[in-house]
TrEMBL record:
Keyword hit for Iron: no
The protein's name: F-box/kelch-repeat protein
Keyword Zinc attached: no
GO cellular component: nucleus
InterPro entries membership: EF_Hand_1_Ca_BS (IPR018247), F-box/Kelch-repeat (IPR052439), Kelch-typ_b-propeller (IPR015915), Kelch_1 (IPR006652)
Region (Disordered): 1-25
Sequence ranges of Low complexity compositional bias: 8-25
Alphabetized UniProt keyword annotations: Kelch repeat, Repeat
Amino acid sequence: MLRDQQVLTLDSASSSSSAPDLTLSEKLTSGSSNCVSESLQVAWSEKGGQVKAPVNCYSKKNKVCSGSGSPAIESWGSEMEDADQNGEVNTSELIGGIGRELTISCLLRLPRSYYYDVASVNRSFYSLVRSGELYRLRREARIVEQMIYCSCNVLEWDGFDPCRQRWFSITSMPAIECFTLADKESLAVGTNILVFGRRVEAHVVLRYSLLTNSWTTGEMMNTPRCLFGSASFGEKAIVAGGIGENGTLNSAELYDSEMQTWTTLPNMNRARQMCSGFFMDGKFYVIGGKAEKHNEILSCAEEFDLENGTWRLIPDMAQGLNGGSGAPPLVAVVNNELYAADYASKEVKKYDKENNAWITLGSLPGRYTSVHGWGLAFRSCGDMLIVIGGISVGGSGVIEICSWVPNNGLPDWKIIGTHHSGSFVYNCAVMSC
């Protein structure tokens, strides 16, 4: 059963940068040091601590002083050498004043966009951030933030922090031919992004790690496929349907990002491809798509109960959405309510659970490049619906992110991010951790 999640917010000016690799710098800048220190003071205060003086993020041994060649830097370097030689890092005392347990408790409440700064403080912080322990503890404490990742140029991905309204880039994907010449699916799960493609002779999976800012080969599904429906919750994800080696599939699989394993689930009632997936009310749904025979467009959906391991067919749940001639249904869930972007009428709709029907709420942002829904992204991000689309300006592409918090009124879309890139969204994923 999915648990309620708390979303952190942070106001900040818009900026753009690259996501640094998690390698230790020789010296932490005073700006980053102050930022992290002040944020930890606030977090400690919220925890109930009394802040009588600035919290020292470093032990006396590692206190950062101005100027090059300082004893602090030499001591820090010596500690890192010792850690490397011993093959392990001591994180028993991260902030000398409050100890390891309260240090981690404070870091859990620090916006994770600051974790790269935290990793630069010393070897202990670096080890803690890169280990993934903070993200696991955040999940247990129900502390979640969203980051938006989209690919608008072949092999290139850009990230967007909606809290700070800040763009950043991540390392490029390896130049594998199938990712440059064919469509690919993507999925954010845990602290990873999975990208699925198909070579002439076989399928291929690439895995991006937030912890290392790097791409590696991912684990293959038990039944490799493309054009499937998928969705994630925490460190788990489900894929269903799609096209396999022998045609359209009715099989489904569960992925565990921490174990990097695939588990085969019971089969759906109907085989389908070019479908969409989502989680709602603690259950997984797959909706729309095409059947194997005669290119039949499916108006039904299926609901998977994770506790009982059973599928339930829902007739006509996709009725009134776009047909099978374009992209799979563009759907997103906010606060356990299902919404859809109708790319033909350029309207946003809400699903009426009681009557199994779709209600038109208003218009989508309408000026973006789209080919029957391809090139347009529609996602949930915390309590927001977001639309990501591209436009051409002066011969170059611009990507815009529009957001709206659903309420009882008409959709009121606000542009929260603009970035010079391609004008076509090939892939998009929202990472929650």
